[in-house]
Write a structure and sequence with these properties.
disordered N terminus, 2 strands, single chain
């Protein structure tokens, strides 16, 4: 976030209607990304898991919103304690905040900053769900979100973006969430799947996406919402930095999509829609931490590297035997690491801060800081997430039974199916549909075979 590196101008800021409106729009765009993620993931699973995949994202909208209001905002952005977490009683329940009280150093109300950050907190655990498709109890998932947001996401957000947080004070650059969101979620996904194990039929049965149009719709909406995610993270629109981030978001995403497709064509002989969607998301992930510190040419390089490396990384699950259902590790963890580390190479020193990367005469200093940020968040999230999953698995059970998994988690967990193949429609329960006979053809009408 911008709070980590901005320099305040002299004088007290006053509320800006323009920046407030801009940030509310950006908050709505980031909120849209969670349903977009649900579509993206929902199209990638088999028919029998579609609704469960949608719900695993949607439930985060409910759970994390309540947690954020009760105590999450206070832990993430309250007064620092030991550089590890925050706490401010005024932020508990958002009860002690004036309606025109400004976020310190900015021209937007605290409420606007809080709701913008809330949308980040919502989508981060939802990202994890793609790695766990087909096999996790919905109640166990809901409990995991509650615990994970509390002991992992909220503190890590403070480390990275909160005043006094240890990575914040070190000078780690994370413009909009490469470490706090994508590495955090990707490492958590890896930790959980190492505990719960593989899907029934992994490496044996075909597990192809059931709806590539749904995947493309989700990817397109994610791309759209990501402009609010990235450009909005400057918390205003006064000095052009947000505009640079907007441009770099588009540029890097395009480069990553093309790089992924090129890799696919050379390796497998085809340009696939799934590859185009996945490449775009990889570019969005990688530019998230880096786009406020690099030039558009740097963004092209970052996107191209992310598209190529992430395309190669998604196959690692078959080599190492971990079942990352929808490639959360290969795209979000690997993409987040790439984008965060490449700040240490491509930071120009002329956009969001004066920090320069290796290619701009800055030496290895910023790269070292970025590496500390990357691997500390990765290790913490991986270990704690695995512990949480293990506790839940040993108490209430994390997975559905093998029979239920084979039968289909939608029917077992939600008593619904995504599509009605009976032809009877989905009317009110208990109603029977009456078939209407087709009119008999006449000799004057052409009858199709």
């Amino acid at each position: 976030m911008a709070a980590a590196i901005t320099t305040l101008a002299a004088g007290e800021p006053t509320l800006s209607a323009a920046n407030t409106g801009f940030m509310l729009i950006c908050s709505a765009l980031v909120m849209l990304m969670t349903p977009a993620l649900a579509f993206f993931y929902g199209g990638m699973v088999r028919v029998k898991s579609t609704l469960n995949m949608l719900m695993m994202s949607f439930i985060s909208l409910g759970i994390v919103t309540i947690l954020w209001v009760l105590y999450g905002f206070s832990i993430a952005f309250g007064t620092d304690s030991a550089s590890l977490f925050g706490w401010s009683s005024d932020y508990v329940g958002l009860s002690g905040i004036g309606i025109t009280e400004l976020w310190p150093g900015y021209t937007i109300p605290v409420y606007v900053f809080a709701v913008f950050q809330l949308m980040f907190a919502i989508i981060t655990p939802a990202l994890i769900s793609g790695a766990l498709a087909d096999r996790v109890k919905f109640t166990a998932w809901a409990l995991f979100i509650t615990l994970w947001a509390t002991v992992v996401y909220f503190p890590v957000a403070h480390w990275v973006w909160g005043t006094g947080g240890w990575l914040f004070e070190m000078g780690v650059i994370d413009f909009a969430g490469g470490t706090a969101v994508h590495i955090n979620a990707g490492a958590a996904a890896l930790g959980v799947i190492l505990v719960i194990g593989k899907r029934v039929g992994f490496k044996k049965d075909p597990m192809r996406p059931h709806s590539l149009p749904l995947v493309m719709l989700g990817a397109g909406l994610l791309w759209f919402g990501w402009f609010g995610f990235n450009a909005g993270s400057w918390l205003g629109n006064d000095d052009g930095v947000g505009a640079v981030m907007f441009v770099n978001t588009q540029v890097a995403t395009a480069a990553a999509m093309l790089a992924w497709l090129l890799y696919e064509k050379l390796r497998h002989g085809s340009f696939t829609t799934l590859g185009a969607a996945s490449g775009a998301v990889a570019g969005l992930v990688a530019i998230t931490p880096a786009g406020g510190s690099c030039s558009p040419l740097g963004a092209i390089a970052i996107g191209a590297v992310a598209g190529l490396v992430c395309a190669m990384a998604v196959g690692l699950k078959y080599r190492f035997g971990y079942d990352d259902s929808l490639d959360v590790v290969g795209v979000h963890l690997v993409g987040g690491v790439i984008g965060s580390l490449l700040v240490g190479f491509f930071a120009t020193g002329g956009v969001q801060s004066e920090a320069k990367g290796l290619f701009y005469g800055g030496g290895l200093e910023q790269l070292g800081k970025q590496a500390i940020g990357v691997f500390s968040v990765l290790a913490y999230s991986l270990i704690v997430s695995a512990i949480l999953a293990l506790i839940i698995d040993k108490t209430m059970g994390m997975r559905v039974s093998e029979d239920d998994e084979v039968a289909g988690i939608d029917q077992v967990e939600h008593a619904e199916t995504a599509y009605d193949f009976s032809g009877a429609g989905g009317g009110i329960a208990g109603r029977t549909a009456t078939a209407v006979p087709a009119p008999a053809p006449t000799e004057n009408k052409k009858v199709d075979a």
